[in-house]
Amino acid sequence: MLEAGVVTEGSDGDLHLTDGFETAWTDEMERLRALDDDALAAATADAVPFEAEGSTRFDGVAVEGDAGAVWLRPVHAVADVAAVRAMERVGVAEPVRAPAASPLRLFLPACPACGGSLAETTVADGCCGGTMNPGETPTRRVVACEDCGAAVRDLGAVGVDEERPTD
């Protein structure tokens, strides 16, 4: 990604999106956000590295072909398809684009669903409590939109919040 001009190393030693790639990615996300569900499914099928058909299923985008199948939440489909298209615009080789799309979500400049600001947060993980105590709620860290709440990247399990009865 460094050689392809997608990311660059900053003076702080951290990786950052290049201005050109960030602009291309943002433009593509804006275009994809405007699509209806069926058009987003078709765009997702066009972006995968195998012949596929796209459809909407289980509140998400399903892409299936002889070489594989993918299911994405719409927010992830927008981010990943936009990343694939933006990588194509900056000259990233086709075999690298789809596998690099999901990891690039760590660098998202804005929410793919609404364009809002992103921040790390902790959310409840699941609906039924923890494995040892029904009062426990497993939590995980995510990058999520501060405006619409869409979780765009899972950063992993954090621990357990215990609900204690109040007297």
Written account of the structure:
The chain is an alpha+beta fold and 167 residues long. It has two domains: 7-107, no CATH class; 118-162, no CATH class. The chain contains four helices and eight strands; from the N terminus they run ββααβββααβββ. The protein has helices spanning 19-33, 37-47, 74-89, 94-104, and strands at 7-9, 15-17, 53-57, 60-65, 68-72, 118-124, 136-145, 151-162. The longest helix is centred in the middle third of the chain and has 16 residues, at 74-89. The termini are far apart.
Instruction: Please outline the major beta sheet.
Output: 3 strands, antiparallel
Distance between the ends: 56 Å
Uncertain residue ranges: 161-167
- SSE series: EEHHEEEHHEEE
Quaternary state of this entry equals single chain
Specify the overall morphology: globular
Q: Helicity level, as a percent range?
A: 25-40%
Provide the β-strand percentage band.
Answer: 25-35%
> Total number of β-strand segments?
8
Count up the helices. 4
What's the domain count?
2
* Structural class by sheet pairing and helices: alpha+beta
The radius of gyration over CA amounts to 18 Å
